Amino acid sequence: MRRLAVMAALLLAFPLPGAPARAQEEQSTAPYAYRQLDDPAKEASAQDLMETLRCLQCQGQSIADSDAPIAGSMRSLVRERIAAGETPEQIRTWLIERYGDYVSYSPQLTGLTWPLFAVPAILMLIAFLLLRRRFSSRGEVQ
Amino acid sequence: MSTQRTAPRWAIWLPLALFLGFVALVMIGLYRPADRVVTSALVGKPMPHFNLPPALPGRPGLDSRVLANGKPHLVNIFASWCIPCRVEAPQLAALAKAGVPIEGISVRDTPENLDTFLEQNGDPFQRIGADDDGKVQLALGSSGVPETYVVDGKGMIVYQHIGEIRPEHVAMLIEKLQEAQE
What is the CA radius of gyration of chain A? Predict the structure, then answer.
């Protein structure tokens, strides 16, 4: 009980940083900000893409989760372009051309990011070699 | 028997050193978080084509072709609901007075609110395009309001100012516009 009281006091004393300050913004009036596409297959592919795009205002959220007006505009952009026949990767590329890699949660393989993909493979290889040496040398001792 | 290779003595400190290195990395990340400002990747590239309808009746809208008329422009992305846009209004007025052509893009706004906003804060704009659904804002790589782009006479984006224009930024923007002129 006392621990609970201490925690509550701590929470009151240090409110979570980055709590959003609500501005009086107009809701997004873009047509597909809050409306799904009629074709379920297209809506599903739009939804998959929206979950991997960063909201530029509330940056920890995807545009599928965010209620920020700019996220509404981005959702509408995604749905309208999917409806017009563009592929999700074309839309992602279009956004990266404007906002950089940061807008996408799905990391792209570039000259800068390749170590992210290579290092785990190299570590696995080193671990495998070390273990093999260890086991085989133990065999020699016996 | 004694053929078993032993690691050098200092190697015993290796895991601790690795761990401390990791802790140092985390602390650096915690105390000096990365810059979270999203700059437009279009700086140095041509202004995308757009043609926005007038934001106010009786006033011209904004066609991007106007920006390639040989003179450098400021393109100010703003909205009546945006508080920092009120803060930068005197600086925009000063720039307009200095003869800088300022074109406005009002994002997710209504004519009534915009009218009140301009009445209260002054109107430095030559043209104001209405970006009601925020599409042009996205096309420009802008992630919020206010943002101000310096566009040269050929319609190339040469500079993007993110956030409100404070008094100390005015001279810098005029300099950028002069550089764009050359």
Answer: 24
